[in-house]
Specification:
Helix 1 links the parallel strand 1 and strand 2. The chain is built from 17 helices and 20 strands. The strands form 3 sheets. A 9-stranded mixed sheet has the order 7-8-6-9-10-11-12-13-14, with helices on both faces. By secondary structure, the chain is an alpha/beta fold.
Length: about 475
């Protein structure tokens, strides 16, 4: 598609576009492309009842759907649009490369479909904290009176957003808060954000990217072409390295966020106050108060350190867009975190029960464990190739006891034996969904008044549950049973 004009959607008319994968992003992409006059073929490896239903709906729009074969490139394909999870080594993409056919992700397609007066993007990526930060950012932008939405990897397809799906006719956005995964960034070479943040970097999805170097490089793509600010984590030098490596517009600034006292061109914390030394007239000598830490506290207790960091990153992006300080405070006050992210479930017999089922890797679990003292930790699931020595070594002093569940629990048990040998461990040799009730009962038996029973699995959930949401719901149900039994 050489010469493609991103400001002319009709350029797709008559083009043969292959969409790789039915799903959250594949179906909207196929629907949008068909609406623009493209000849669309969707290829999908699985051929189940759900996929057949989706295929039938798309067929009514003139889309051809090929189920059971996601490897063969349809003849005459001009461009492939892929769902984020498909690996770069997939035979379909190898065939596309051999044929000289470009491969775009859903985010790349959305970027190219924007109109001439499209809303700028404030983009966020990182191993952990993306969704919370993007939702905080959208809340701050809305508090400033801006028309905005939290979109992207957060579950709202960008293709639908840029084409106006789901909005009242004639309405537009002033700015978008965009969550981008490493998968999406890999396939989005043209995206150029107004400002962007990389929250943190830790090993994750290495089976997809092939190496930590490749994973970091894909995360770093979010900074390419930034116009105003590249926001990085001052406590994570790898994020600053990505800023240094990026090719940005002239005048674009590096802005750090820190849980400590900020230096010039940073946002940080002073005596419980979030302060800005980046977007003030004299950043060498002045600071602007943005909010209090208490303004980002959850419904119960004080915010975990990593959520303070998320708030600082969101504030930096909002300030880069010109949002006043008062809107940062108001936006953080009105923000409510999604379920299963350090969510206080209940207090039973003086013990606090906290659901952080979203902690699906060691980096997220480490941040969660750091937020509490005297923890009975419920952990385990699918390790995805992770190792647990550093996590256990860091958390050992906080652990009252550990209850292990899931397919790869032995890896955590072995790390506990090496680095926390005196911590009691209950190893539940079960991978059925009912194991959560037993895990909570065991945790309650081991906990003392003032302790926190923390579900922070450090693993994926698919060995036992459909997703981390269902795992968190099972935990909450089990805590409810415990409370009803009068424990």
């Amino acid at each position: 598609m050489t010469g493609y004009d991103p400001r002319d959607p009709q350029d797709f008319a008559g083009r043969h576009v292959t969409v790789a994968g039915l799903g959250v992003s594949g179906v909207p992409a196929a629907r949008a492309l068909a609406g623009l006059g493209a000849r669309v073929t969707v290829v999908n490896g699985s051929d189940g009842e759900r996929e057949r239903a989706q295929a039938a709906e798309l067929a009514e729009l003139g889309v051809t759907v090929r189920l059971g074969d996601g490897e063969t490139l349809p003849e005459g394909t001009d461009v492939v649009v892929t769902s984020p999870g498909w690996k770069p080594t997939s035979p379909l993409f190898l065939a596309a490369a051999e044929a000289g056919v470009p491969v775009w992700g859903d985010v790349e397609l959305a970027w190219r479909l924007r109109g001439p007066d499209a809303a700028p993007w404030l983009a966020v990526t990182g191993t952990n904290g993306k969704t919370t930060t993007v939702r905080m950012l959208a809340s701050i932008l809305a508090a400033a009176g801006l028309r905005t939405a939290a979109v992207g990897n957060i579950g709202v397809p960008l293709v639908d957003v840029v084409l106006g799906e789901g909005r009242a006719e004639g309405t537009t956005y002033d700015v978008l808060a965009v969550e981008l995964s490493s998968y999406q960034l890999h396939w989005a070479p043209s995206v150029r954000a107004h400002s962007a943040a990389v929250l943190n970097l830790a090993p994750d999805h290495l089976d997809w990217h092939g190496s930590m170097t490749a994973y970091a490089a894909d995360k770093g793509r979010i900074y390419e072409g930034n116009a105003v600010a590249c926001v990085y984590n001052a406590a994570d030098p790898a994020t600053e390295d990505l800023v240094r490596a990026a090719d940005v517009e002239e005048g674009c600034r590096a802005i750090g966020f820190t849980l400590g006292t900020p230096g010039p061109s940073q946002v940080g914390v002073v005596d419980g106050i979030l302060v800005d030394r980046a977007f003030v007239e004299n950043r060498q000598q002045q600071a602007q108060e943005l909010a209090e830490i208490a303004d980002i506290a959850p419904a119960s207790g004080k915010p975990a350190p990593h959520n303070v960091a998320n708030a600082l990153a969101a504030a930096a992006l909002a300030r880069a867009f010109g949002v006043p300080a008062a809107a940062v405070r108001d936006g953080l006050r009105s923000f409510h975190p999604d379920p299963h992210r350090i969510q206080h479930v209940a207090d039973v017999a003086g013990v606090s029960y906290v659901d952080d089922s979203k902690a699906t890797n060691t980096h997220a679990a480490e941040a969660s464990l750091a937020a509490y003292e005297n923890i009975v930790w419920i952990a385990g699931g699918l390790a995805k190739g992770a190792t647990f020595d550093e996590l256990v070594r860091t958390a050992a002093g906080r652990l009252r006891a550990v209850v292990l569940i899931g397919a790869d629990r032995a890896l955590i048990r072995e790390a506990l034996g090496r680095h926390a040998p005196d911590v009691p461990v209950v190893d539940l040799d079960r991978t059925d969904t009912g194991a959560m009730s037993e895990a909570v009962r065991e945790a309650a038996r081991l906990a003392e008044a003032g302790d926190t029973v923390l579900l922070a699995p450090a693993c994926a959930s698919m060995d036992m549950f459909v997703n981390y949401n269902k795992r968190g719901e099972a935990f909450a149900d089990a805590v409810g049973e415990l409370a009803a039994a009068g424990h």
